[in-house]
Amino acid sequence: MVELLDAIEQRLSGETDEAYEANGNAWFVLITKDRLEIENKYSEPLTGTVTMDLALTVLRAYWDVFDEPAIEKGKRDFRKYNHREPHLPW
Predict the structure, then answer these.
(1) Which residue of 7, 11, 18, 20 pairs with 33 in a disulfide if CB–CB is 3.0 to 4.6 A?
(2) Whole-model pTM?
(3) What are the tens digits of pLDDT across the range 22-59?
(4) Mean pLDDT across the chain, nearest whole number?
């Protein structure tokens, strides 16, 4: 989740204009400066596009469910693999 928030913040801040793409075994996400597109490939193809404002609202609600140790672990993992501090919108 920290990686997704970092990708969003980099695009919103203008740090990069390059689209961010990521995928797992059953999903794909594309992040640009003004939208987030997500595709669920698990049981049936489901695709949706949302504004960055809506994406951040949903991600904030999800973020607030986690306790502080889980958030700090996500930040540590990000630093370990990206060799920098994550850029977070809050």
Answers:
(1) 11
(2) 0.87
(3) 998 899 999 999 999 999 988 777 899 999 999 999 99
(4) 93
List of residues 6+ apart from 80 with CB closer than 8 A: none
Q: Please choose, from the candidates 90, 23, 40, the residue with its C-alpha nearest in 3D space to the C-alpha of residue 31.
A: 23
Q: What is the dihedral of CA 13, 87, 28, 81, to 10 degrees?
A: 140
Handedness of CA 20, 87, 67, 62 (dihedral sign): negative
DSSP string computed for 54-76: HHHHHHHHHHTTS-HHHHHHHHH
Amino acid at 23: N
Determine the Cα–Cα distance for residues 77 and 36; give it in Å rounded to an integer: 23
